[in-house]
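Q: I'm writing up a methods section and want to include an example of the input and output format. Could you take the sequence below and give the corresponding predicted C-alpha cells, formatted cleanly so I can copy it straight into the document?
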Amino acid sequence: MRKPALHAAITIVSLLILAFPLVFAVVKIVRDPEVPFLLSEGGAEWIQIKRPFNLRSWRGDEGIRYRLRIVTEKALPEAVLTVRALRTAQVYLDERLVLPFNYIEDWKYPRSVDVKDYLTPGPHELRIIVLNENGPAALLAYSKSLDIHTGKDWEASIDGTTWGPVKQVDERGPLELTQNFPSTFAAFYSLLPFYAPLFLVCFFVILSSGTFLRQYPGPGKIVNNPLVFRWVLLGAWLLLAVNNIAKIPLVIGFDAPDHYDYISYVAEKGAVPLATEGWQMFQSPLYYLISALLQFCLKVFFSAEKVQILLRTIPLICGMLQAELAYRAVKHVFPERNDLQVMGTLIGGLIPMNLYLSQVVGNEPLAGVLSAAAIVLTLGIMRSAGPFPERRFIYVGTALGLAFLTKFTAILLIPAVMLALLSVMVRNEEPFRLIAGRLLTVLGIIAVISGWYYLRNWLELGKPFIGGWDVSRQIIWWQEPGYRTLHDFVSFGRSLVHPVYAAVYGFWDSIYSTFWLDGFIGSVAYEFRPRWNYDFMLSGTLLSLLPAAGIIIGFVNTVSRPKSSRPGLIFSVYCIAVYFAALVYLYVTVPIYSTAKATYTVGLVPCYAVLCVTGLDFLARNRYCGAAIKALLVCWAINAYFSYFVL
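A: Here is the clean output for your methods example:
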C-alpha cells in the first residue's frame, strides 16, 4: 500500500473511532429506556413538580400526581389524549381510569387513548399519576382536539391533597448555595485595584521588553528561558503544596472519605477490593496501592490524622509534574519558540482544575499525570525524524499501562496514541513488520501492567469495567436533574456569573465551571466549603475567558487547516475530541448534575497547553495586541495561584 493510501486509511480509522461513541450515544438516546433524554412533542412541554433544585442524593421511588381542569362545551367526535411519562403513567378522567400503568421499558413510546366516550359537556378533571422508581417523575401530555398541552397551567401534588405549581424541566434554579457567593463581576470589581496596575505594569514592560531586559537581565533570564521559568513555576508549586497540605479539611474533595476507606482496606488487608465492596472501590487500584504503601510506612511515625494529611503528597506531586509535562509538550510542538514554551508552561502548570484537584486525595491526579506523560512521550516520538529507539515505545506502553491501572478512563487515550504512533512510522516509511511489532509491544506492555485487574473483574463480576453507577453494585440513588434535554447542550452563560454549581444548568456550564475554577467547591454545604480565596477564584472565571478562547481558537484553526498544522496539534485535537465525545456519552447516560466534570480530562493538560498557545499566538497579530494578551495571561496566572493558596 502506498504512503498516501496509508495516511488516508489512518485518517478514516481515526474518524470512525471518534464517531463511534457519538453514534452509539444517539442510538441509546433514541432506543434505550435507561437513557432519560426528554424531547418535546405535540406542542407540549415536559413538566415536573415545582420545588427548589436539591443537591443531595435521592433514593427510592418518586410518585407525582398531575391534574388539569378542562371544560367541554359539546360532544366531540374524537378526543385522543397522548401521554409520555418518566417512567410510568396512569390516566384518570373524573376519577375513572382511562389508561392503566405501562411497562417501564415502553416509556419512550407515547401512548394514546380516545376519551370522547368519557366526556360530556361541562367541567372535567384530568389527573395523571406518574411513578419513577429511580428518578424524577416528569410528564408530557397533549391532545389537539381538546387543546391540552402540558405546561404551567397544570398542577402537581405529592400526596393528592395539597396541590401546587409545576415547572418546565429546563427550569433549574436558583440554587441557595450559589447565592451565598458573590457574582463573578462583583468579585472582579472588588479586586480591580489589584488587577489594573498589575495589567498596566505588565503591558508596558512587555511592550518595551527589549529595553527592560537589557536593563534588568536577571528577570530576562527567567521570562525568556523556558527551562529556568519551568523551575520557578515548580518552586511556586512546592510553596503552595507545603502551605496548603495541612490547611484543607480531610473531608474536602470528591468522595474523599471513601478514597481513604479504599486506601485503608488495601493497607490493612493486603488485597484489592471488589467493585461491590464500597462506594469508591470500583476504581482501578494503582493509586490506592501506592497510597496504602505510604500509609503503612508513615503510621509508624505519625498519628492517623497526620498520615491522612501526608497522603496528599501523592496528588500534590502529580499536580506539580503537570507543569513539567506542559513545558515538555510545548517544547516538542514548538521547539523554535521560547515565548510559546514559557506561555504553555504557565498555562499548563496553573490550569485551575489541576490546582484544586491535586490538593485532596483521589486517583484522578495520578491517572492524569500518567496520561499526560503518555501524551508527551508520544509528542516526542512525533517530533523525531527517526529512526526510533525501541525503548521509546516501551516508555509509552508503560505510561499507558500505569494510567489504565489507575483509572479505566485512560482507555480513551490508547487508540489516539496508537494511531499517532502508526502515522509517524508510516511517515518515516518504516517496514510493516517493524511497525506491527512496535504497536504490539505497546499493547502487550499495557496488557501486562493492567490486564490482571480487569481480567479479575471479568472473572469475579462478569465484566471487566465496573462504573460507579453500574447496577451490579446495587447502589440505587439519583441526583437532580435525573434527565437530559436539548437545552442542556445549547445553553451557556450561568457559569460566567454564578459559577458555583453552575453544572446544574447544562453541559458547557458544567465543563467551564469545573475547568477554570472549583465549581463544586468540594461540598454541598456552604459551611463545609474549602478555604479557597473566593474573590480571586470567582473573578478568575472572567479572566479565564482568554485562555479558554485560546484553546478554542487553537482547536478550530487546527481542524480547519489539518494539512498545514503541526502533527502534535492534530494529535492534541484528536485526544480532546475523543475525551469530549466520551464526556457527552457519560453526560447523557448518567443524568446527574455532577457527571460532566472537566477534571475527567486533567490528563489532557499538555494538549490544552499546546492548543492554547496556538490560539493566543494567532490573536497576537501585532505588538500591542500581543502585549495585552501576555499581560492578561500574567493576571490570570497570578489569580489562579492566589485562588488556591490558602491563607
